[in-house]
UniProtKB/TrEMBL annotation:
GO MF entries: 4 iron, 4 sulfur cluster binding; formate dehydrogenase (NAD+) activity; molybdenum ion binding; molybdopterin cofactor binding
Top-level lineage group: Bacteria
Protein known as: FdhF/YdeP family oxidoreductase
Organism: Sorangium cellulosum (Polyangium cellulosum)
Entry keywords, A to Z: 4Fe-4S, Iron, Iron-sulfur, Metal-binding, Molybdenum, Oxidoreductase
SUPFAM superfamilies, sorted: ADC-like, Formate dehydrogenase/DMSO reductase, domains 1-3
Record field: transmembrane: none
Length: 770
């Protein structure tokens, strides 16, 4: 509970879910049906058709879902997937949350509703204020709302008592102005959702190849001989990726998938836009499935590397690209020594993969002249997340699989512009070069000390060292680890404010005062003083493109994110600011002019972004220019990580349902895994369940242990599943309460949400989570 008697966690579900058969293939008629049902149910037939036909089109808007790129040529008429259509429908819904809604419902009452119910109430229409001690939000004007935030910021003893959080849906233009405002105010406290997902990728890649991004384009998938998909479930999280995998497999590319769960989206795909795929078994995707144990990836790729090195000793030149290694890399000797010293028994035991299958993966890699490695949260959200990424890079570097067509690393981002936000300077540890350019271009001295990342920001709020929390998008409470602690941290703030399109749980667990600031969505027209505007985004592969909504705004009271940031900056900084905030809000071309002057790679920004295909940002590593400390690509050796479990303990990872995107819940059915009508489930092996006297559907509590004590998640249902022994999986955000704030990845400080030690016991009762 928090001060207003609100609940930070979703309530326990009154009825158990229905457990049935998993889907035989991703996509197909089931995906078509789910898309139509959701889109028409939220938007109606005419609005649904008109809106969906503009998704990811050159003159349309960028999907507010994932960051998978669009093809440069030959975009289909329906360039969206099932989950993308759901994301669009959620935003373009005809339902509205008006001031009358908040008069009828107290924050405590709303907090007892499921997350699905909260999101289904519709679009927010007015700025709303929760006064200190009040139980209900009340409407306020925009001027009053911005004045409240400005007054709270000016009252701080130090700008570092403010936290400016950013969601990955924020446009480049809004993100650039947001970081500029924070730094002119005097802080680098700019945590974002990258801290919780791909931060390990950025840290690992920068040390290995000198750039924190992937190096491949979508065209490279048309050329690859082998694609390794590691710790990723594209069928649910990036469904349009399945098209690229389908085409690659059909032309003979070998696809190796590495994951603790057998995911249908990695196995077979029925392309909804290919009539021949809609019936029958679908196109098989994986050539080889390696069911690794949770966090067994370093061990697995150590084994693959060991096989490759041994083959090279037997047949020099057969397994390694010696010319590339000699000219472009450092550190092979240390990597080879670490691989030689790793015992095969330990590799097999820790990875969970038999040696003959490890050998089969190595043979695929050695046959391939062009290999792509893709990954997502399955690699990054572990204590050794950076090591996971770097071991995958070691694997690629052995055969020179970077800087050549059809090859390279491909971290697949989640939110549609999370990569762009970082490019724009949303980072608590900004490089000196960026700060130098800001100082030269805007005439103020930005702070040089590092700010707070997401985990540090929560700790600072909990300890009273941060007093104002401002979120540009997102659902901070539900997205972050350690739900109870995060709730207490937010409650200690003087003010919490959220720029949002829809109601979520973060609006209910608040500081002493709270604001909801409703903004335009991607689907909506944005008209400012100079006329209609568009914004830009950067996808997973470094391509920047425009996004232009066409629907009328859900309310005349909505403001764009750009206008909100500019208005807040003007209200807070006043005459002391040297930035022309009003002019920038009136004409986004002027924002892009400033981005061009400040951010490398954006030459002729306004001209180039008018190309419907967008333009690719420069990537030195893709040209085999490695801007590391050594001036080379670095092999970085890592020991096999060891996680000792006591008797009765299991290793838990959090995952998404097929009916959600990040913290947004679209429905209660995960048809790919055979779960319908519920979310509080724990996937476990039949052997682990039997050992604990548990059966399918039993009600259990899950506890986690950490140095600061025990955490409990109550009333979960057992789902027997083909998961390795000793491993379990749960959906987030329901299981985030089990993730300790202090359990983070080395170097990147990403929460280790996929490496949580838990115990499972029969539930004593159906008591409410608090």
């Amino acid at each position: 509970m928090t001060a207003r008697d609100v609940r930070a966690e979703p309530p326990v579900e009154p009825e158990p879910p229905r457990i049935g058969e998993c889907s035989e293939a991703a996509g197909g008629l089931a995906a078509v049906g789910a898309t139509l049902q959701h889109a028409i149910g939220e938007m109606g037939v005419s609005r649904a058709v008109r809106t969906l036909l503009r998704v990811n089109q050159g003159e349309g808007f960028d999907c507010p879902g994932c960051a998978w790129p669009e093809p440069e040529q030959g975009r289909s008429l329906a360039e969206f997937c099932e989950n993308g259509a759901k994301a669009v429908a959620e935003e373009a819904t005809l339902r509205r949350v008006t001031p009358d809604f908040f008069r009828e419902h107290s924050v405590a009452e709303l907090s007892r509703q499921p997350d699905l119910w909260l999101g289904k109430q519709g679009r927010l229409t007015h700025p709303m204020l929760l006064d200190e001690g009040a139980t209900h939000y009340r409407p306020v004007s925009w001027d009053e709302a911005l004045a409240i935030v400005a007054s709270a910021l000016r009252a701080l003893r130090s700008p570092d008592e403010a936290i400016f959080y950013t969601s990955g849906r924020t446009s480049n233009e809004a993100a650039f102005l947001y970081q500029l405002f924070a730094r002119e105010l005097g802080t680098n406290n700019l945590p974002d959702c990258s801290n919780m997902c791909h931060e390990s990728s950025g840290v690992g890649l920068r040390e290995a190849i000198g750039v924190g991004k992937g190096t491949v384009s979508l065209h490279d998938f048309e050329l690859a001989d082998a694609i390794f998909v590691v710790g990723q479930n594209p069928g649910t999280n990036h469904p349009r990726m399945l098209t690229a995998l389908r085409e690659a497999r059909r032309r003979g590319c070998e696809i190796v998938t590495v994951n603790p769960l057998p995911e249908v989206g990695n196995e077979r795909f029925r392309h909804p836009q290919h009539p021949g795929d809609l019936v029958g078994p679908g196109v098989p995707l994986s050539s080889l499935f390696l069911q690794v144990r949770i966090n067994g990836d370093v061990a697995l790729f150590t084994g693959i590397i060991k096989e490759m090195l041994e083959e090279e000793e037997r047949r020099p030149g057969a397994a390694l690209d010696r010319a590339f290694i000699a000219e472009h890399t450092r550190g092979l000797e240390a990597l080879a020594a670490a691989a030689r010293e790793a015992p095969w028994d330990d590799i097999v035991e820790q990875s969970g993969v038999p040696r003959d299958r490890i050998r089969a993966a190595a043979e695929i890699a050695m046959r391939s002249e062009r290999t792509i490695a893709c990954w997502a949260m399955g690699l990054t959200q572990h204590q050794n997340g950076v090591a996971n990424v770097q071991q995958l890079m070691n694997f690629l570097l052995l055969r020179g699989n970077i800087g050549r067509p059809g090859a390279g690393p491909c971290p697949v981002r989640g939110h549609s512009n999370v990569q762009g936000d970082r490019t724009m300077g949303i980072w608590e540890r900004p490089p000196a070069e960026l700060l130098d350019r800001i100082e030269a271009n805007f005439g103020f001295s930005p702070p040089r000390h590092h700010g707070l990342d997401t985990v540090a920001a929560i700790a600072a709020m909990a300890e009273g060292r941060a007093r104002v929390f401002f979120a540009l998008g997102g659902n901070f409470l539900s997205a972050t680890p350690d739900t109870a602690l995060t709730a207490r941290a937010l409650a200690r703030c003087d003010l919490t404010a959220h720029v949002s399109t829809k109601l979520n749980r973060a609006h209910l667990v608040t500081g002493k005062r709270a604001l909801i600031l409703p903004c335009l969505g991607r689907t909506e027209r944005d008209v400012q003083a100079s006329g209609p505007q568009f914004v830009t985004v950067e996808n997973s592969m470094g391509v920047v493109s425009s996004s232009r909504g066409s629907l009328p705004p859900a309310s005349e009271m909505l403001r764009s994110e750009v206008a909100i940031v500019a208005g807040l900056a003007r209200a807070t900084l006043g005459a002391r600011s040297r930035v022309p905030w009003e002019e920038l809000a009136a004409d986004y071309d002027r924002v892009r002019d400033l981005i061009e002057r400040t951010i490398p790679g954006f030459d002729d920004f306004n001209a180039r972004v008018k190309d419907p295909r967008g333009f690719a940002l420069p990537n030195a590593a893709a040209r085999r220019e490695f801007r590391t400390e050594t001036g080379k690509a670095n092999f970085i050796a890592h020991p096999l990580p060891r996680r000792e479990l006591e008797p009765g303990e299991l290793l838990m990872m959090t995952i998404r349902s097929h009916d959600q995107y990040n913290t947004t819940i679209y429905g209660l059915d995960d048809r790919y895994r055979g779960v319908r009508g519920g979310r509080r489930v724990v996937f476990m092996s039949a052997e682990d369940a039997a050992e604990r006297g548990l059966a399918q559907g039993d009600l259990v509590d899950i506890t986690s242990r950490f140095s600061d004590g025990e955490r409990v998640a109550r009333a979960f249902r057992v789902v027997l599943y083909a998961i390795p022994r000793g491993n379990v999986a749960t959906y987030f955000p329901e299981a985030n309460v089990l993730v300790p704030l202090g359990s983070v990845a080395d170097k990147s400080r990403t929460p280790a949400s996929k490496s949580i030690i838990v115990r499972i016991r029969p539930s004593a009762d159906r008591g409410e989570s608090t």
